[in-house]
Design brief:
The chain has 362 residues and is an alpha/beta fold. α1 packs antiparallel against α13, α4 runs parallel beside α13 and α12 packs across α13. Helix content is 40%, strand content 13%. It binds ligand FNR and lactic acid (LAC).
């Protein structure tokens, strides 16, 4: 838990600093770390700052609403909690606390396959949270099928299949200080010897997965499939051709292949290629309401928020995670008002431009 001096928590960066003070080195390294030289991880954040907003005035912004439609359902706003593994390393309540914060703010919560709360346990603890399930396809297809069946049986509303981790990225902070996670019930089948490191768990993922498998998952169960980890228009088109309902334009928070494109740069060409046939979600480095606005203006339907929610969880459990989401929603409301777009539907590409300050920084 954070110390009292950390209570000046008015930005996501405040939560990050407070969490860094509170976490042990292993957990901080796991949560904050990226792959190799962490170039993409850092650029995820700075890439949004390379976009300038072109505001409109005198459009009448007294009435504002951040609502969007996602998978055919009205949502109160475009925020989704990204799937993140081993959340009990941040707080004893882990995923359950984040789901409580998600329910309290009308945010979709995505449970990670490598979460430290099982699929049924999260549903039982937080039935009123809108839940998606993120799937890693293991070489053990039996365990994989069980996970999908549990998600369907327990009211999860989408299957987010992560495709950018056929093998785990070079996580040098984890190599130096590997955290160990207490596996929850389902891991008894996969982790008979008890706690494993995230990298050891990730090695259970099937590297032979292909687009045909995606088509099979889409056909074999009732949940809409969202393919997470797409960075090119070519792959976005393949996702549409293989039964996906949506994609997440994502580089896994810079934790997989270092020096790939940041989401802010990959997003527009992908929307141009598939925006009419797929629901495009963006993630990576979103830390301000203005970042959310820019992603929506580029054509994202919604955005996933990762590490900042973990910082909130670490600092103050469900209240901290809720605080982070509420700050982002307050900032989004302000951005919509000052950009002259009372709703996300009022946004388009004309609201963003390459920032003139790009290249001027020392
Ligand atoms: C992740 N991410 C992730 N993604 C996924 O599909 N399955 C997973 O199990 C995890 N686990 C995970 C753990 C931790 C500690 C982090 C930081 C990230 C990636 C996550 O879903 C998302 O793509 C990025 O975190 C988004 O970037 P930001 O918001 O963290 O900058
Ligand atoms: C990670 C894997 C577990 O990013 O998705 O840590």
């Amino acid at each position: 838990m954070a110390e009292p001096q950390d209570r000046q928590l008015i930005s996501l960066a405040d939560y990050e600093r407070a969490a860094a003070r509170a976490l042990d080195p292993e957990a901080l390294g796991y949560f904050a770390g990226g792959a190799a030289d962490e170039i993409t991880m850092r650029d995820n954040e700075s890439s949004w700052a390379r976009l300038a907003i072109r505001p409109r005035v005198l459009v009448g912004v007294e009435e504002r609403h951040p609502g969007v439609t996602l998978l055919g359902q009205p949502r109160p706003h475009p925020l989704i909690v990204a799937p993140m593994a081993f959340q009990r390393l941040a707080h004893p309540e882990g995923e359950i606390a984040i789901a409580r914060a998600a329910a309290a703010t009308g945010t979709i919560m995505t449970l990670a396959t490598l979460g430290t709360t099982s699929v049924p346990a999260l549903a039982q603890a937080q039935p009123d949270a809108t839940r998606w399930f993120q799937l890693y396809v293991f070489s053990d297809r039996g365990v994989t099928r069980e996970l999908v069946a549990e998600a369907v049986e327990n009211g999860y509303e989408a299957l987010v299949i992560t495709v950018d981790l056929p093998v785990v990225g070079r996580r040098e902070r984890e190599l130096r200080a590997p955290p160990r996670a207490q596996p929850h019930a389902v891991w008894s089948a996969l982790a008979p010897d008890g706690p494993m490191t995230p990298m050891e768990f990730a090695r259970l993922v099937d590297p032979s997965l292909t687009w045909d498998d995606i088509a099979q998952f889409a056909a074999a169960q009732p949940l809409p499939v969202i393919v997470k980890g797409i960075l090119t228009a070519e792959d976005a088109i393949r996702a549409a051709q293989h039964g996906a309902r949506g994609i997440v334009v994502s580089n896994h928070g810079g934790r997989q292949l270092d020096t790939v494109l940041p989401g802010a740069e990959a997003l527009a060409p992908i929307v141009d290629a598939v925006g009419d046939s797929l629901e495009v979600i963006a993630d990576g480095g979103i830390r301000r309401g203005t970042d959310v606005l820019k992603a929506l203006a580029l054509g994202a339907r919604a955005v996933m928020i990762g590490r900042p929610v973990l910082w909130g969880l670490c600092v103050d459990g469900a209240d901290g995670a809720r605080g982070v989401l509420e700050i982002l929603l307050q900032e989004l409301d302000l951005a919509l008002a000052l950009a002259g777009a009372p709703t996300p539907a009022a946004l388009d590409r004309s609201f963003v431009a390459r920032a003139p300050w790009v290249g001027q920084q020392a």
